[in-house]
Design a protein that fits this description.
The chain is built from three helices and eight strands; from the N terminus they run αββββαββββα. It is of the alpha/beta class. The termini are far apart.
Length: about 170
């Protein structure tokens, strides 16, 4: 990887990044977009993953000295376009992705990532770009099956939705 979405010149050269990935966990943010209308829907991007195409959260690496909320906004704009607005950003959970299967609940063979995961109300017309080949809204009771998600993120989405249902 030579560039992290939207980072431009602030990112690390590919060789140096590979050495870092081999030794250090990477701080990331993920976002589960919530629909701005009255219907309970969540938004997911469809993208390539190491295991093949799958539905995923919006997100990626945090830059040095970048506030987490700014990283979420940067990844949202780079992945779904500047016409999508984000409000009511709220922390939901932290998910750890390990390079080796079986160490934890989630696996990403490319890197050990620690993802601070948020929800946020999104309005506007998404225009998938970057890693996203498409975007779709899903009714919260009609999510794709777990095997259609990348990185096991179906379980992350269901965990977050379970937090909502347990709070009222």
């Amino acid at each position: 990887m030579t560039d992290i979405i939207g980072a431009g010149e602030r990112w690390i050269p590919a060789g140096e990044y590979a050495r870092i990935l081999a030794r250090v966990p990477i701080a990331c943010v993920d976002l589960l977009p919530l629909s701005a209308d009255d219907r309970p829907r969540v938004g997911l991007i469809h993208r390539d993953t190491p295991a093949g195409p799958g539905w995923c959260l919006v997100g990626g690496a945090v830059l040095r000295d970048e506030p987490l909320a700014a990283a979420v906004t940067r990844h949202l704009a780079a992945t779904l376009g500047g016409a999508v607005t984000l409000t009511a950003l709220a922390y939901a959970t932290t998910v750890e992705y390990f390079t080796q299967p079986g160490i934890g609940d989630f696996h990403d063979p490319r890197k050990h990532a620690i993802a601070h995961t948020y929800t946020g109300v999104c309005a506007g017309t998404p225009e998938p770009a970057g890693e996203a080949d498409r975007f779709a809204w899903f009714e919260t009771d009609r999510l794709p099956p777990d095997e259609e998600f990348g990185f096991g993120q179906g379980r992350v989405v269901r965990r977050i939705l379970g937090q909502f249902s347990s709070h009222g």
